[in-house]
Design a protein that fits this description.
Two copies of one chain form a homodimer. Chain A is of the alpha/beta class and 511 residues long. The first copy, chain A, is built from 14 helices and 25 strands. In chain A, α2 (21-29) packs across α12 (416-440). Chains A and B meet through α1, β5, β7, α6 and α14 of A and α1, β5, β7, α6 and α14 of B. Chains A, B: It comes from Parathielavia hyrcaniae. Chains A, B: Residues 449-506 form the External alternative NADH-ubiquinone oxidoreductase-like C-terminal domain.
């Protein structure tokens, strides 16, 4: 903000790219009395993703699971838009501003990269083309003293035909809204009576088939929430349609919920079996397309081609895609840059050309145990060097969350837990005394375990210390999460909505 | 619904066109034990319009002011779509089904009628062209025993250039949502700092000018709510933008709020003056257009041409249109039909050709004092006629709400009060004993007075018996309305949101 700039001249400006679990948690923990906080993000809020599936079926109101960035306690600067490029030498970020209506409340899925040399990384140009607003936004430049890269990862479609165009994703609040509209609209469309020009029961059976691709916690939870919505709220309103409804979860792996032990995974599958949710493992989706003719044009019916089924396609009214992540195109762009100087005050052999170091497997940026960005060429150790910290790291640039790969723990999962723990660690170190303090203590990941909701108030929770199942797991861990990451406003509203939905049913109106 | 059809064979089917104040209140009051209720409406819910402005500024959550039709107590049939045509002789309604995502949550503004012979009435074709979903819906046919026409009226643009394309309307929940997105987006767009490619303060002054056209309660209330949002929620977040913000209400009349007495109207104007809301009476809007170049293309800046200002246009970031209603195109279509027989068992002179009688001034359907549709040719009074009620009325067809004009009280205002009172009266008479009971007791309008919110917890209320002002008026009358027309769910949620918004501020995230 113009005003904040003027009054914070003496403070170091920390610019944060992203407002997800990493970026928001960092901004929340960083002390505004010690630093000027500036967030750059395409969305103006943080989404509490564990409850996203609940909002997509109307158990919760959308706004109860998002936290507006501008409402963070203490002074906060915010620019809505995409970080378009970074000049590390002059410590400046170029932003493509985008404050258009509904900008970026929908998951952006980049086109596959043009150079095959760069596996699983999106093509920035193709991505901007896919951006929310057709019109390109203003370009603005923001200087920083310290930079925290927390811009996350994109959904991975594995270049499967039709997925970008026809599948629903479930990563942002706008996605949840579209999914909810689609579900309710499908039931409405199938509720019309017999008539000259109407849907046959076979058509309706296709439209009321809900396919979920990806058997991780997100996909499983969505299937469970969807089942609750249909059984508890839609069955009384559309009784004659119930025989035509079906839910299927597809996964390429041998088992779903890989992070759970046998007993819990079996418990999940038994629960699903009782709920008539089909789980089809070792199924490979090859293509997604709109049905030809009226059924596709008017009602948006889809056809799923599955390798194991040969040419015979599966019909569906909606396909929810919840599998795989790909590196953010910005990362590829940044890693390609040559860094002129290793730091503010260059040591002797500054000539050594270097660039950001990327993890060849995931395409993320490598960091040291302190979440500092690694550079590709390590300078020779030199006791005389006045800048030991300059060795192989890019000063004042930190990377956290899905776009970071820690060299000491390279296989940390891309989860909210990892992101928020990294964020809190880095912010606390900076509060404790800047770059020096950061170098003082390495990051350690504490696994609180994984919670997955299975429908009918049942859930499973797995960690090193416990293996909970049933409603206890649900209450304990949802509650824990909630109190941990939400504002007072939402701590009040979420339980109220749980009660309201339980008493009076979920919201079922489309608008 | 298929199921309900089978089980209700013995009951008379009452088909209701529309789910606004008239249609919803009627369906709510009609006894499902005595009649099979079937609602046909483009939207799947009833909107509590007095709180629409509150949702458009985030004081309330959208879903708290809508009631899903399918959640009406007792069995209810519902088909989402537009009544496309009615065959009165065979008692069948043709519906253009439309259950597409977000169908009709946005105000549809028909193009002006092609035949100038038909003043102020929209052209059905032009309207369908303007319909929400490009794809035409299935056509389905629904038979009725009794028909209640409650399809309301459309927004009147007086064929002013650019209004349909660029103005925001405020009649449905989708409108409120779009308005909220636009307001917040405008502040976000103006919050970017100085830069090579950025908005000047002059540009921002234009974008942050909010113009409201129409000085009736709706326009005035929106201006007031917008002022509250800006002063209480946006000022702390965008302090540097406040000097650039302005709100103007334009009206063609000499004074706004014509239904209020001098003292209350003056109180309203004084309140607005203190809030720096400009009220410009006797101003005629002549054209609305997008600014040329980036400012228009990228930021959607508008230019308003006003007769009194000559060629010099007024800039604005948003124009909210809340003035005038025009007859529903369906009415014109129905009135044009020749009715073959006057009733189920035709009297002697059945040959007498007739059609629905329309009010030449407003284009609505004339009804008698019992809300029965009037026909154009009255048959000669004939004591021997076995069907006295067949004289000049169309049997089993009733008209209520904005599309009805009562011959005994032709100048009733087009308000929620009139609509809901007519609805309740008709439903109670039918409950009391069908067509006979309807003829027994004429409708009388009771004016509960008009409430208008002025911002800062102040309101004014005017009726024959009182002239209230200040917060008392607000509490008493909002409360009264609320308890009268809402479900338990929303009776709980609305006060909770009032409290939450008051404690923690309004919802300010865009998605």
């Amino acid at each position: 903000m113009l005003s904040s700039q003027s009054s914070d001249v003496q403070k170091e400006r920390v610019v944060i790219l992203g407002s997800g679990w990493a970026g928001y948690a960092f901004a929340r923990t960083l002390d505004p009395a010690k630093y000027e906080r500036v967030i750059i993000s395409p969305r103006s809020y943080f989404v509490f993703t564990p409850l996203l599936a609940s909002t997509s079926v109307g158990t919760l109101e959308f706004r109860t699971i998002i936290e507006p960035i501008r409402r963070l306690p203490g002074k906060i600067g915010f620019y809505q838009g995409w970080a378009d490029d970074i000049d590390f030498d002059h410590k400046t970020i170029r932003i493509e501003a985008n404050a258009a209506e509904e900008a970026a409340s929908k998951t952006v899925v980049p086109a596959p990269a043009t150079p095959p040399s760069d596996p699983g990384v999106a093509d920035p140009k193709a991505m901007t083309a896919q951006g929310e607003s057709a019109k390109k936004g203003d370009l603005i430049h923001i200087p920083y003293d310290k930079l925290v890269i927390a811009c996350g990862a994109y959904s991975q479609t594995f270049s499967i035909e039709g997925v970008r165009e026809h599948a629903h994703f479930l990563r942002d609040i706008g996605d949840a809204r579209r999914i909810r509209l689609r579900i309710l609209s499908l039931f409405e469309q199938c509720s019309y009576p017999q008539g000259s020009d109407h849907l046959t029961d076979a058509d309706k059976r296709q439209l009321l088939h809900f396919a979920i691709v990806g058997g991780g916690p997100t996909g499983i939870e969505f299937a469970a929430e969807l089942h609750d919505l249909i059984r508890e709220d839609l069955a009384p309103l559309y009784p004659h349609l119930m025989p035509l409804v079906s839910i299927t979860v597809f996964d390429v792996a041998q088992k779903v919920l890989p992070m759970f032990d046998q007993a819990l995974a079996k418990y999940a599958m038994d629960t699903f079996a009782r709920q008539n949710i089909q789980v089809k493992t070792e199924h490979h989706l090859e293509r997604l397309r709109l049905v030809d003719g009226e059924l596709g044009r008017r009602h948006g019916a889809l056809r799923i081609k599955i390798k194991e089924h040969g040419d015979e396609e599966v019909g569906a009214g909606m396909v929810v895609w919840s599998t795989g992540l790909m590196a953010n195109p910005l990362i590829a762009k940044l890693a390609a840059k040559q860094l002129a100087s290793p730091g503010p005050n260059p040591p002797a052999d500054a000539s050594a050309a270097r660039s950001l170091l990327r993890d060849p497997r995931t395409g993320g940026i490598m960091t040291d145990a302190h979440l500092r960005a690694r550079t590709s060429t390590i300078q020779p150790a030199n006791e005389a060097s006045p800048h030991p910290k300059a060795r192989g790291i890019l000063e004042d640039v930190y990377v956290i969350g899905d776009c970071a790969v820690m060299e000491n723990e390279p296989s940390l999962p891309k989860t909210a837990q990892v992101a928020s723990q990294q964020a809190a660690h880095l912010a606390r170190r900076l509060n404790a005394g800047g770059a020096g303090a950061v170098a003082g203590k390495a990051f350690r990941y504490r696994n609180w375990g994984t919670l997955t909701y299975l429908g009918g108030w049942k859930a499973i929770h797995q960690s090193e210390v416990d293996a909970l199942r049933g409603w206890v797991a649900w209450v304990v861990w949802r509650g824990a999460y909630l109190t941990k990451s939400m504002s007072v406003r939402n701590k009040i509203l979420v339980p109220i909505y749980w009660m309201i939905s339980w008493l009076f049913g979920r919201g079922i109106s489309r608008f």
